[in-house]
Design goal:
By secondary structure, the protein is mainly α. It folds into 2 domains: 10-47; 114-290. The protein has helices at residues 2-19, 21-32, 34-47, 52-61, 64-94, 114-117, 120-155, 157-188, 191-213, 227-234, 238-271, 274-290. Helix 3 packs parallel to helix 5 and helix 9 (191-213) packs antiparallel against helix 11 (238-271). The radius of gyration is 32 Å and the shape is globular. It comes from Vigna angularis var. angularis. It is found in: Cell membrane; Cytoplasmic vesicle, Secretory vesicle membrane. It is a multi-pass membrane protein. This is Secretory carrier-associated membrane protein. Its main location: membrane.
């Protein structure tokens, strides 16, 4: 009888064990995560960072083996945060302005705050310059649409690839090469940044004029929605020709506004004495290079 009771107890114990294996696994997982919870408490004391979601991830997804691997990842993550904070504090002590990305509001990728960083008498001009940047984005985007339609109608895939290259390279290139230098020139009154803006903004205007004309230089010019390519396409496909004429109009408007912007910036540049300052800085730079 004792042996039968013992065997029954063993069977009951086995059923309990296997029937509650999930609970046991969770218990082992929690025990395995105790060291990580201690690390969490240590990190929050030192860095004041709320890492509660790490606990949830550990309890939900991690096994005993991966928990210890996650320890290393956690330490690297915390070290990077500490390093970033050190750099921010050092920059603040040195008086360096950190540019926080805030535009566009729904997906910030650049820093842009004309109202608070640009002098009041220059804000209108900066807004118009920003309009030319957005206008270039619109022109190149419409250029992709029109060229895509022409490609569908049998104009060839090469012009479509060129239109994509114009858009991918032109939009970030315009921001980095001429809009940001103008923004910083107005903000810091740097003569050299004005010179950089003038040189590259002239290239921007030249590209807009080239796009508005679209001479038959590269693949018969149909990779750009200019007047010549619009006339060429209109004879075969009226709708696509209209698309090209709309692109031609957009590039013309972009060119005219850009010419007005560079004229106004140049007038301010000469009137504020930045031209003479730029010459002095260039002369000092040449002297230092010679020495």
């Amino acid at each position: 009888m004792k042996m039968m009771k013992a065997s029954e107890n063993v069977m009951i114990d086995n059923r309990l064990v296997y029937g509650n294996m999930d609970l046991l696994n969770k218990g082992l997982l929690i025990k395995s995560c105790y060291p990580l919870f201690n690390i969490y408490n240590f990190c929050t004391d030192i860095f004041s960072i709320n890492l509660m979601y790490i606990k949830v991830c550990l309890l939900t997804f991690l096994s005993t083996a991966t928990a210890w691997k996650f320890t290393c990842i956690l330490f690297v993550f915390m070290y990077q945060i500490q390093d970033v904070r050190r750099k921010e504090e050092a920059a603040a002590r040195a008086g360096i302005v950190l540019e926080e990305k805030n535009w566009p509001p729904f997906f910030p990728i650049i820093h842009h705050d004309i109202a608070n960083e640009i002098p009041i008498h220059l804000q209108k001009l900066q807004y118009v310059a920003f309009t030319t940047l957005l206008g270039l984005v619109l022109c190149l985007f419409w250029n992709v649409i029109a060229v895509t339609a022409a490609w569908i109608k049998g104009e060839g895939v090469k012009i479509w690839f060129l239109a994509i290259i114009y858009f991918i390279a032109g939009v970030p290139g315009a921001y980095v090469l001429w809009y940001r230098p103008l923004y910083r020139a107005f903000r810091t009154e740097s003569a050299l940044k004005f010179g950089w803006f003038f040189m590259l903004y002239l290239l921007h205007i030249g590209f807009c004029i080239l796009a508005a004309v679209a001479p038959p230089i590269v693949f018969k010019g149909k990779s750009l929605t200019g007047i010549l390519s619009a006339i060429d396409v209109l004879g075969d496909h009226a709708l696509i020709g209209i698309f090209y004429f709309i692109g031609f109009g957009l590039f013309c408007i972009e060119t005219l506004i850009s010419i007005w912007v560079i004229q106004q910036v140049y007038m301010y540049f000469r009137g504020s004495g930045k031209a003479a300052e730029m010459k002095r800085e260039a002369a000092r730079g040449a002297l230092r290079a010679a020495i």
